[in-house]
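Every protein is a chain of amino acids, and every chain bends into a shape of its own. Below is the pair of lines this work produces for a single protein:
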Amino acid sequence: MRILELTEENRRNLLDHLLKRSPNNYGQYESVVADIIANVRSQGDEAVFSYTKKFDHCEITAKNVRVTETEIEEACREVGGEFLKVMEKSAANIRRFHEKQKRTGWFETSPDGSILGMRMLPIASAGVYVPGGKAAYPSSVLMNVIPAKVAGVERIVMVTPPGPDGKVNAGTLAAASVAGVDEIYKAGGAQAIAALAFGTESIPKVDKITGPGNIFVALAKKACFGYVSIDSIAGPSEILVIADETANPCYVAADLLSQAEHDELASAILITTSRKLAGKVSEKIEDFLSELSRREIIRKSLDNYGYILIAPDLDAAVETANEIASEHLEILTADPFSVMTKIKNAGAIFLGEYSSEPLGDYFAGPNHVLPTNGTARFFSPLNVDDFMKKTSLISYSREALEAAHTDIELFAEREGLTAHANSIRVRFEPQDGQK
């Protein structure tokens, strides 16, 4: 990995370089995605099945588009009991964490008879997109579905592309069974997002779509936003490690590589106050690369977006970390909790040498669907609130409104909205037939 001094120029160049990975920079694909969405809206199943044949090389019809209970049972047998038990443990941890996020509505009454409040209800339906092929991750099924179940969503629909044999990844189906998905359909790509957003003869429309996907999926979610709610426009995975001279270089190197193996656009960055640690981490990375199965992807990822930055002190490291606002942030310092208090922007923070990032990916419980590409400055991890909708409640007595009506009328009149003012005023003027 390249080793650089953390200067203002290098920091600025790094931020510009990382932002090039954003899905917002792939406008050349937007017209293709727009055509797919338009065709699915107008032709429904026919378009979805045609695109499935074209892109997934699979014949899907209305008779076999929905995954059957038999297929799910076969998938559970295929993955084996040991893996099922691990997924069930992970699901229990995820459920336990997200249950702590549940909130209830509230009411506040005043002596004048006014009542204000907030009603919170789950959305009726949610759609989860799950990639297929080499990018099929059962863990993402658990992370997307379980918060929706905890929120109380009545119908959860999953879409995932089939293989050329018409089958869906066994791990994906087993995870869907563990998480409690209600319906599963064999559809992928932008066409699957369009089907969830607008509905077809076979695939029902949903209220919200979550889940990762390739650039076509990301752009389809972006294009459908407004017709349907979405979680976010996810970019490539990223990890940032803040470390001092006390960090174990073996652990740091291993953790950086754990994200670099996702794809060539993934970023892995170490910011350290120790030049000695920087050199050792670089050496360990080379040692590990010879052993890892995805070494070619990792090598390209590190060549493209891998950095070791030597900071003058931890304050400078923290400042840069806050500017980058990484999806995953590990703190491997003598006092990680003290450093953590200075972090303002990060998707998830991992504290100490035994809190490696894959712990969050698979098992600890916090959601691994996290903001990327600097969006941790204003977005949060996927959570129960993402599947809730809030409704404001207002009830005023005559007494309460009488005390405020002239203020409201003045406000409305200053905005030129005389009908607004009149709606309040008529309640305090004599009506026809009244004195």
Q: What stands out?
A: The chain is about 45% helix and 15% strand. The first strand starts at residue 2 and ends at 5. Residues 205 and 237 are 29 Å apart (CA to CA).
